[in-house]
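Protocol step 4 of 5: obtain the predicted structure for the target chain.
Materials: sequence only (see below). No template structures provided, no constraints applied. The aim of this step is simply to have a reference model before the mutagenesis design in step 5. Sequence pasted as it appears in the construct record:
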Amino acid sequence: MMNNAKDYLQTMRNCTFITSGSFGEGLVMRGSDLDVMYVCKFAEVCENKNMCFKPNITYFVMEAEDSQPCFVRLRLRYFTGRFFFASFLEEIGGSYYLSNARLKEQMTDLRCPNIHGPCLSDTHDTMDIALCFRNQIPNGHELTSRIYKEQSCSHIDIRKLLFSPIAYVAYHAQMKTFDYEKAIHVILSFESSKIKYLYLHFISKFSCISDQFLPFKFISDNKSTYNEYNSRLSSLLQNTHHDAVSGWLMLASFFYGTKQYYIALDILQYSLSKCSSEKLYHGMDVSYTQHKLLNMKLLKNMSFAQLCKFMLVNVLDLISLKPREIPDEERNIQYSTCCVFTFPSFFLCHYHLKNTSKYLDSINDLQTTIEEHYFTGNSYETYVSYNTLGLTFELSGDKKSAKRAYKQALKFKPRNRVGW
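Step 4 output (structure tokens):
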């Protein structure tokens, strides 16, 4: 059910997403990776020679002759309109065939730069992506007569999904395909509250990097910006359901961007109260207290979406949330821990309110948080944390301390960092 909800919300006009493999079946197996199928909607494989061709669809025919066992060649049969595959074809014996090698070479990117058999893989071998075509099966084919029994999910331990690195990749990969309006219509169409909560979880998670949260110049006496302000505020309030903290910090950042510093401070204080020791954070070991807490009957009866909202603390995407004070050369920093992001936000609010003693306290709190490794899961997050500390020192006028913080950050700077 979780994969169905996630895949449906990610699906675009030209591509359908399908989570396959063991994780797609609801199994979390040690050592397994995440398999994602990108099913192309503007190309199909046909078997029936007398079928009617649809406009703007490219059709290929399977040929098994002169190919290795379990492999086929795809020969171009028909196309109209825009032709996407022109650079991926090779001519053999007067016919044009789809080149798997050319297709994969041109589809590699920073997120999945490696070619792994028929798939593209990320640098950590945790995710495989395969571009797929639909096969038009003729009526009466044996595949159409299969009977599928309803699968029960009662044997799945939802709590284990919270600790799965595959789950982390699944929920962070390809979120930019999210369609907010479609998701709202889906939620309103369901009667089951459990399904609604599940979709609400993914709406909250996917929408956090949507363009609707990018900063904008707020003019109070301008009707259009006032309407946009209300629209974005409403959307941000829907972004607080996928974990305990990050959505609230995005809301605080929004109020900071519109210079409503006192409101931002109240939300930041509320967010900080949620960064407590029993929360779960990716990359950190689970403590004895957390194990006992997860074995409580109350939490066992919670759904996956409820557990995430109550127990998880995610990293915070900084691409659209960086305050205006951060210089352009720091734009390559992609994310920060929620706890570390909170204190610079405190600092900036008090800085603009000219509360000198309080913004100095915020710097001290940030430094203590970093040194205690509080909610810091890896060296990259430590690198970002010390960089953030250096920026706050620099803004406060303490150039000497800023230089020390930047120097400390270099000790944790990752080499050849790609993707996440």
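Step 4 remarks: Residues 140-177, 416-420 have pLDDT under 50 and may be disordered. Residues 213-410 form one domain.
Proceed to step 5.
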